[in-house]
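To close the chapter, one final illustration. This time we ask the reader to focus less on the individual chains and more on the assembly as a whole: which components sit near each other, and how the overall shape emerges from the parts.
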Amino acid sequence: MRAAVGLMLSHGAGGMEPAMSRPDYEQSALHHSCLLVLLRGVGPSRARVLQRAFDKVRRVNHIRVNDSSGHPRSIWIRFVHDHPVEHNDWGDFQTHRRLLGLITIGKFDSQTELNELCRQHESLKVRYGSTLYESRAIFFGPDEPPLETIGEVLGPPTAVGRRLQDEFTTPSNFKAQAFFYREQDSCADLEARIGDFASALFWVLESRRLERSREKADKVSLLLAPFEKRDFVGLDMESRNNRKRCVGRVMKNLADLSLQAGLVDDALSLYHNANETLRSVGDSLWVGATEEGLCAASAMLLYPQMRETETLHRNSSLQEAGTSPLKNIPDKWRASDATKKVSASDATASNVDSCQPQQRVTSNSSSCSSVSSLVTTATNSSASDTPTTSSSSTSTISVTPIPGHQRNGDLPGNILKAEEITNYYRKAIINYSKYRHAATIETEAALKASRICIEQNRPLDVAMFLQNILYINLSMSEAERVKRFEVITDLYQQIGYQRKAAFFQRLAALKHVQQGSQAPDWNQSYRLMLGSFTGYRLCLDPLEVIENAAGWPALQIDLVQTLITAARRLGHSALATRHMTFLLQTQWDNMSPTEQSEMAVQLQNLSAQCEGSPVPLVLDNGTVIPPANLTDLPYCLDLQVKDLPAHLRPQRIKVAKADSGPFLFTPIHFNSVDRRDQKKDKNKIAFQWVQNDLSEVTVRLRNPLPFELAVTDMRLLTNGVVFESLPQTLVLQPHVPTYVALHGTPIETGQLDLQGYSTHTLGVKSNCRLKHMRGRSFPPNYVVDVIPALPRISVKTSLPQTATFSNMNSADIVVTSASLTLYNGESSSCTITITNESATLPLEHIEFSINSNVEQELQQKIFRIDEEAIKANLPVPPQGTIEIILDVYAEADFVCPQPPASLHSGAAPGDYGAASLTHYSSVSTSGHASLPSRVGSPHQRRNEPKNSSFRSTISGGPPSLAALSLQPGGGGGVGPSSLGSQYNQHIEAQVRFKYSGGEALTAGYCRQCAVSFNLELLPSAQITSWDVLPAEIASQFYLVLDISNLTAQEMSLNYTDTKNILIEAKESCRVPIPVDRCSLEKVVAARAAEVAENLERELCFRTQLLSFNDALSKLCSIHIAERVKINWLLTGTDIQGIASLRGIVLSQSMVDLTAVSPLEWAISFQDTLVQPHNEIVCTVGQRSLLSIQLANQSLQPLRNLVLSIKFYQDYLNGMENYNLETRVAISGPNRIAIPLLEKNEQKKHTCSVIFFTPGRFKASIECISNPQKQSEQSASLLTRSCPAETETVGQSVMFSSSYDEQQAHVWKLIPPIEVTVVEQ
Amino acid sequence: MAFCIAVIGKDNAPLYLTTSDMEQELDLQYHVNAALDVVEEKCLIGKGAPESKELYLGLLYSTENHKIYGFVTNTRVKFIVVIDSSNVALRENEVRAIFRNLHLLYTDAVCNPFYIPGESLTSKKFDRAVQKLMSGTA
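The assembled structure is written out below.
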């Protein structure tokens, strides 16, 4: 509406002469009944100011007047802004073409301006003078000076008017009635005045009508259409035919007037009559006119709502343009009748239906009521023809029903039926078409007919009429032709023929710029072209176009290309670029490869002028061109969100507890909730990103164009937390998939929404969102959690780096490495320097752990970190450092592992003791005679095979010895070889740091990195064999070790506090080490523990019972390992270390020596207590009393003991002579059986000894405890011994005795007694 | 004798279009596209009484140069034939004959098991036959 006024004003000022016979494309059938009034703005255009006044005037388009006989008349007024004077000439033909009234609206500030306004009004009056009945001028003066009170303004309008009229006077030649208003006046009475004006027009018209109706039939003159004037020159007007023609024409004229004057019924019958009359004389043109008149009159009664649709229609078209055109393509126009158009345009009239007129009244009420009020006020002053007092308010509108109502009840009988109207129009058009000069009339009739058909919902007829318009040969300017196309477009759109509409719209667009046109109007062309998008199933939003994928690609491409041309010619290169982008994006699949590359090059050229960017463009007319993005150029094959590098990856400090359910995995899903969760999480990334840490997304791109494609400024597109994307520039080779890494840094914590990426290619910036990438199974976005910033550290070690990284688990978190070579037993340390690299965050939490390829127990011995020291140094400030000392000890097994049993399988039954002894003897033959040797004690050896075989039955064979070995690495046979001391050992270890700080620490996150250690252990010393010998004092024993130096250097060995020995490289030597015996308490404790354990085992399984020997042997082994530390030093270097005896394996006899004896000896000779190393002297032949007292110090009773006393002579060369039958005699038995020695019980044995020859004698006094079976045998053998125990006792012993009783023990008196026998 | 023959799918997507004057192809496409409104309208009208449905839709519209005829199959595939307006000798019966033949050709083409309904017709055999039909030598 506003635009129309603006247009009107611009036209009005010019006052240009319109072209001849310009069709009025807006006309509808109902306009036949309207009084034509020219509403024109004059003076300098001030549309905004006067807009309100225009609206007010326009609103008064209908009044109701009571005629002289008191019948109500409904009068309609049509306001036009322009009217060609020639059209008045057709006024005789169709009276509604005559301009009856004139209203000018103007604004002035000064007297001269007012004069000008008056002049323009007068000149318009003159121009249309021939037909004009009345005119009005509305003047808006300047605002009142501020002195004026507001009350005055609100006062009676006449007062204000007078005031203005006082200030400014109209020129004397100005005769028209003028209304003066202040600029800001509310013009409350304007509508009333226009109503007045309208009724004035009516009365003049009514008088004309009456005049015409009273004319005598034989006196009427011939009415002529303008072009007919020449045709009738010289014809006999008095002929019967012509008379009839005259009468018919006058009748038709009267019908027109009646129609205008609101007498529709009269008009109908008059038209019918005229039609018959004129048809009889063959006056085709006028027959057509009567037919058209009939249609108009009928339509007026049948379709009164058309008046409303007409006024509202302008808005509706605007609204339709605003909504998305593609969505409502299947036009529901048919479904809901013509009234739909009303409902679409006006909410208040939404339910208006042709059958529900009362609602229409409400929609009309605003204007009607104002009209009625003005009429009532006006009546007092105006008409004097109101006969009755009661109806003095002659015209009321709102109360009485609109004439349309009556159609249901009493429509005139001669009215045309709905379907007849079309036929009549067709006939009229055929009649018109006989006259070349009636082309305008014909065109208008066709338009009116199609409008009626629209109302009747007969689209095919509409199409027919519209199609017909094209055939009418009307000489018209190109602009007119375009206008015609646009009107046709509009009508086609109304019936939902979008394609037809688009076809004509495009034609109109092409007409605007067709070749040869003097002033091609690219702007209009562009606008129309854009308008025709809908018809070709296109829309401005590329997403929607791709979504719908409808329409004819060839046409769409052509249309868009034309549009691009138009935009380019307009000089709007941004638009051209946008449309080209649109074309590439939407029609890519519909183009051949050559076309694709051509278009791409074109786009490049266009964007060189104006770069494309993904922002909506707004045209001058308010149309918004949505952004077009080249989402598939380059084509994204896949997109992967990358986790941070392993050593920077955030972890939970405390590992969340796994679900405590009994099942680790269940295939059963109880409800759909689970599945929905999975679905939801599809775009959820499992890992986290860290605030302020550079993150990465990898995209695989393919360039579908046959030339190199440069993509610049490629960034990630994100939502959610602030994210700083780093631009990436790349050149893509044709058709080669390329990986591109896009980086960025999240600045905040929270959820980061990765939507895609933006590119800048072919001069166009595009936002390529995943959800818009079709044909690939991308989720619409990826969601990554960003956790608070974590500190970063760098780690250095004081050791050299290794050449190769380890192949241990999680090697990816290793940040640095260190290598170290140590001899077994050597210690070293490594300083790890940790620098907090973050600029702001303190390092508040460090946790470390060591992983290696050796067992945990051993690892703890090798690596040690002082955790407390680290804790004390926390937190580390930003850029601060912390040093961690890692102690490394080259732990190894120095004791030579078991020689393989197979070596001895042939010779001995694999007993360890035998093995060690054979080994030992081989050593001893090499000439270490200085050491006391047990090889020469065959007495002890003699028992051994039996013992060993017995033992092996319990423990399940010789290999089980390996099982009880204490070597930490010993898992079966692998252990010894994995960490033996004679080979180089490689240990790989990782020191892992978990560190955190700042907010992330409170959130429970940390990072992990590791230092990889490569530790090489070289063999140093090794103990190849060992034995235990009794020492000089009872509280000690000698541990004799064969130690070999496996290094290539001379080694200095410090084996006791004071003793050193040098060993050449690859040599070995034997050292004795005095060691305190293992105390009895420990033995007792070990025994108790072992008993308990065995009991338990017995109860449970009765298998694989441990022998006490194992426990005791273990105990002794530990005892030795604790006490004996052998320090070695490689001479000439500062390399030193400690060799430990951990894992030494002792045989039974060794164990007995190692542990303190459970027996306490008290020997007295000649009634004097023998002290160790005391020399006892006696004489030959003299009886000497030897008294041996035994006490059981242990907690257990000892059974089946055999005390034996033997004298021998030690030749001190390794030979001992036991055959002393001729030299010494003992009274009483020399083997005394003691069946049971209770705890703390003492036994005393006394015998007499007589030496026959002088010399040095030694007495070996020992106590042998025999195992049960043997003791039984011995009991039977030793008849001289003390009474044997009963069987029952033996049985009970069998069960109650602990298992150690089943083994033979030998407890010797140490040192042996030495007796020197002298001659008397 | 015919100027242009077009086959249009049930969703109004073009399946096939040929013309004796390739230079005017685009222009003809515009015309054929514009004719679809009327075809749809006529299809709607015919919907009410399926048994009496006439496949031949008759003259859709005519322009200065062309007359455009329509035909719709039971599967809503539309045939459009454009005929030169100057060819006054052509009678409507002949147009019907063209449509009948075209329908047969189309049926044959669609019977190809490798043809996916809704895709554009690329069969050479069909094309040759239609060209013949168009030139009136069929």
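Residues 25-47 of chain B form the longest helix (23 residues). Chain B touches chain A at residues 11-14, 26, 29-31, 33-38, 41-42, 44-45, 61-64 (CB under 8 Å). With these observations in hand, you are ready for the problems at the end of the chapter.
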